[in-house]
Amino acid sequence: xxxxxxxxxxxxxxxxxxxxxxxxxxxxxxxxxxxxxxxxxxxxxxxxxxxxxxxxxxxxxxxxxxxxxxxxxxxxxxxxxxxxxxxxxxxxxxxxxxxxxxxxxxxxxxxxxxxxxxxxxxxxxxxxxxxxxxxxxxxxxxxxxxxxxxxxxxxxxxxxxxxxxxxxxxxxxxxxxxxxxxxxxxxxxxxxxxxxxxxxxxxxxxxxxxx
Length: 211
Description:
- The protein has a domain at 97-209: Ribosomal Protein S8, Chain: A, domain 1 (2-Layer Sandwich).
- β1, α4 and β2 form a beta-alpha-beta unit.
- It has helices spanning 11-20, 49-66, 97-105, 121-137, 165-174, and strands spanning 112-115, 142-146, 156-157, 162-163, 183-188, 198-203.
- α4 (121-137) runs parallel beside α5.
- Helices cover 30% and strands 12% of the residues.
- The strands form 2 sheets. It has a 4-stranded mixed β-sheet, with helices on one face. Strands 3-4 form a two-stranded antiparallel sheet.
- The chain has 211 residues and is an alpha+beta fold.
């Protein structure tokens, strides 16, 4: 009976067989099939498959970074939109000495006054915010905020039972991010406007008013 001839082993099978019989001496006349040489990838100019893949990955990574396709053409998809940077809070500017003197002498007019006497902290905070924003909308530039000197019951914060708290907190509120787009600067008022218990507040012009 004629012995049936088996099919030839492919490259992967030969490599697997070499791994299995590694270190085993073959029987006489039964040679182990030799490993076929590795074929370079088409278009790789003699480079191995692993090197070609590494180059392809590096090329694609660079193309993604530059927003173009690996072939050199610009990508069709739009780049992801970047979040706009948060607007910078403008710094406060102290009142100029000449302006302070003009206000104290009455040669420059006070356009509005807010009296916070007897208000609780939360009430005073809300009143201050509403007052300065409204004054800016009405195109006022100089206003007075009366906090009280804290020497009597009028300067007492009724919620915390602490005297003079508004005198300390109002400057902090004026310098806060909530009002920095409205307030340009502030300074201690003249004696006839409240002295140490009041502040001159200079307001910024609204953006639509700027030339």
